[in-house]
Amino acid sequence: MKAMGAGEAKAYVDELYRKVEQRWHERVLDGELMRQLRAGALPIETFAFLFRNGYAQYAIEINTMWGCVYQKYLPFFKQHVDLMAAIGDKIADEFLHPEPPGHALILFQTCERLGVSREEVLNRPVLPELRGLIDLARSILYEGTAAEWFARAASEKMVGVWTGLCYEALTTKYGFTPDQAVYFSKHEEADLQEHDEGVMAHGEFNATVLRRLLATGGGWERPGYGMEYCALSNADLWALMFDQALKLAQSK
Ligand SMILES: [Fe+2]
Predict the structure, then answer these.
(1) 240 Cα to the center of ligand 1, angstroms
(2) Among 10, 26, 217, 235, which residue's beta carbon has the most beta carbons within 10 A?
(3) What is the C-alpha to C-alpha distance for residues 241 and 223, in angstroms, rounded to an integer?
(4) CA-derived radius of gyration, the chain
(5) CA-CA distance, 60 to 193, in Å (whole number)?
(6) 199 phi and psi, to 5 degrees?
(7) CATH classification of 6-251, choosing from 3.40.50.300, 1.20.910.10, 3.40.190.10, 1.25.40.80?
(8) φ, ψ (nearest 5 deg) of residue 98
(9) Mind listing the pLDDT tens digit for each residue in 96-152?
(10) 245 C-alpha vs ligand 1 centroid, how far in Å?
């Protein structure tokens, strides 16, 4: 794969992020479930339904995939030691903060407030209608290319925006305390801002790796997939998960 110049790689990644951001706004953040949540009009049971039947399981599993990403693309990280430190920090964030087992712990805390038990988070099967998001990630990890994975991960910056909106809605309209909504505030910080004395925001980390891949000839794409498809399909599957949760919760 021909390496792009640094300027070309930056322009490509900026444009990809612009498209992902637009898709998130159109389909996720301005989608029905989030519109209702932000207005305080979504029954909290519907939000709990999303966590009970798909999101909580997704949140745990996607973090474990980052360990696999490090192993699978170790030769790339060995050539870019600065990024080796950054992926270590990112994995540590997910598993060690605020204390082991990391984000799973604060997920349990927020789920408890939603009435979703730890047992459900750990053992409840994901509804088929909600499992496209995690299955796309798994298929890109095991069958796709590094560039496709890091293009898929363009959504992580938008997860930071989404968690910020959830925190705002839950603490101002649903009576959650900051502690009960800690899962959302922690993610907003980790995905969007430099934190804990120099740890790169996860969104910026993913964009940095993608730029580096493109600038060093690592922008491989499969026919029928490719970076843009993986990035936008991932955003679409967030939207579908929310749409399906809303529809199924209402039909109960
Ligand atoms: Fe993150």
Answers:
(1) 20
(2) 235
(3) 26
(4) 18
(5) 21
(6) -75, 125
(7) 1.20.910.10
(8) -75, -20
(9) 887 888 888 899 999 999 999 999 999 999 999 999 999 999 999 999 999 999 999
(10) 22
Q: Locate tokens 């490719």: which residue?
A: 226
C-alpha dihedral over 155, 245, 64, 14, to 10 degrees? Answer: 0
CA of 93 to the centre of ligand 1 (A): 8
> By mean pLDDT, which of 34-38, 97-101, 210-214 is the weakest?
97-101
Are the C-beta atoms of 86 and 210 separated by less than 8 Å?
no
175 CA from centroid of ligand 1 (Å) = 25
The number of beta carbons lying within 10 Å of the beta carbon of residue 62 is: 18
Residues in the 5 Å CB sphere of ion ligand 1: 190-191, 202
State the distance from the centre of ligand 1 to the C-alpha of 2, rounded, in angstroms.
30
